[in-house]
């Protein structure tokens, strides 16, 4: 069954603004969207093999995670918000948004969040090197991956407006392709 609403992956180094973007997008979207904060889901549903004290993060059980996400993704109308995007099957994503942030701004945001220094440094380096972006580009067709700046509130409003326009187009395209299928079936 084709999806009636798209699946949007929002990824980026921690602190680039994924959750904030996702929350605004839920409000602005022309179709209902469910925001899944994948990191929170892993924690709340125990989809992990324990907590890594050194890195202050959970060791994710990917099979359990994918099982949990399968049903909402197949329904569509979902935002998958996580700092990595290469775990999902490629067919899941209709759009992959990679948020980017200036590294000094990111440092401040992660400091405010109370991250340990080592974790701030690691994420800061990852952002400078564009690790999350490279990973997204290696995992998906280039046409569905979009890199957006997320330094200011203006950036965020523009980004969300762009994604809303993309959703409107996706809905139109998919209504049309649904009609094409019906026509070709009746021929
Ligand atoms: N484009 C932006 N402009 C200003 N502040 C932002 C922007 N994006 C995120 N922030 C702020 O940065 C912090 C981290 O954002 P968050 O959405 O939690 O990041 P992530 O989900 O990627 O870890 C929050 O305090 C948020 O308000």
TrEMBL record:
Residues annotated to bind ATP: 15, 17-20, 113
Major localisation: cytoplasm
Region of interest (LID), ranges: 112-122
Region (NMPbind): 37-60
GO MF terms, alphabetically ordered: AMP kinase activity; ATP binding; ATP hydrolysis activity
Catalytic activity: AMP + ATP = 2 ADP; ATP + H2O = ADP + phosphate + H(+)
Enzyme Commission identifier(s): 2.7.4.3
Gene Ontology BP term (one): ribosomal small subunit biogenesis
GO CC field: cytoplasm; nucleus
InterPro entries documented for this protein: Adenyl_kinase_AK6, P-loop_NTPase
Domain of life: Eukaryota
Keyword entries, A-Z: ATP-binding, Cytoplasm, Hydrolase, Kinase, Nucleotide-binding, Nucleus, Ribosome biogenesis, rRNA processing, Transferase
Annotated localization: Cytoplasm; Nucleus
Recorded family membership: Belongs to the adenylate kinase family. AK6 subfamily.
Oligomer and partners: Interacts with small ribosomal subunit protein uS11. Not a structural component of 43S pre-ribosomes, but transiently interacts with them by binding to uS11.
Annotated function: Broad-specificity nucleoside monophosphate (NMP) kinase that catalyzes the reversible transfer of the terminal phosphate group between nucleoside triphosphates and monophosphates. Has also ATPase activity. Involved in the late cytoplasmic maturation steps of the 40S ribosomal particles, specifically 18S rRNA maturation. While NMP activity is not required for ribosome maturation, ATPase activity is. Associates transiently with small ribosomal subunit protein uS11. ATP hydrolysis breaks the interaction with uS11.
Name of the featured protein: Adenylate kinase isoenzyme 6 homolog
């Amino acid at each position: 069954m084709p999806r009636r609403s798209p699946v949007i992956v929002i990824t980026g180094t921690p602190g680039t603004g994924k959750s904030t973007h996702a929350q605004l997008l839920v409000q602005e979207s022309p179709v209902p969207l469910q925001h899944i904060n994948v990191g929170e889901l892993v924690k709340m549903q125990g989809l992990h093999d324990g907590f890594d004290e050194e890195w202050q993060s959970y060791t994710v059980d990917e099979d359990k995670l994918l099982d949990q996400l399968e049903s909402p993704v197949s329904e569509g109308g979902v935002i998958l918000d996580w700092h990595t995007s290469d775990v999902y099957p490629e067919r899941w994503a209709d759009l992959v948004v990679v948020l980017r942030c200036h590294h000094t701004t990111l440092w401040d945001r992660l400091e405010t969040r109370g991250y340990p220094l080592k974790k701030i440094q690691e994420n800061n380096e990852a952002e400078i090197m564009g690790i999350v972006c490279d990973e997204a580009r290696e995992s998906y067709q280039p046409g569905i991956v979009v890199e957006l700046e997320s330094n200011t509130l203006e950036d965020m409003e523009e980004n969300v407006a762009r994604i809303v326009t993309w959703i409107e187009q996706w809905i139109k395209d998919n209504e049309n392709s649904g009609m094409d299928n019906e026509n070709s079936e009746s021929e």
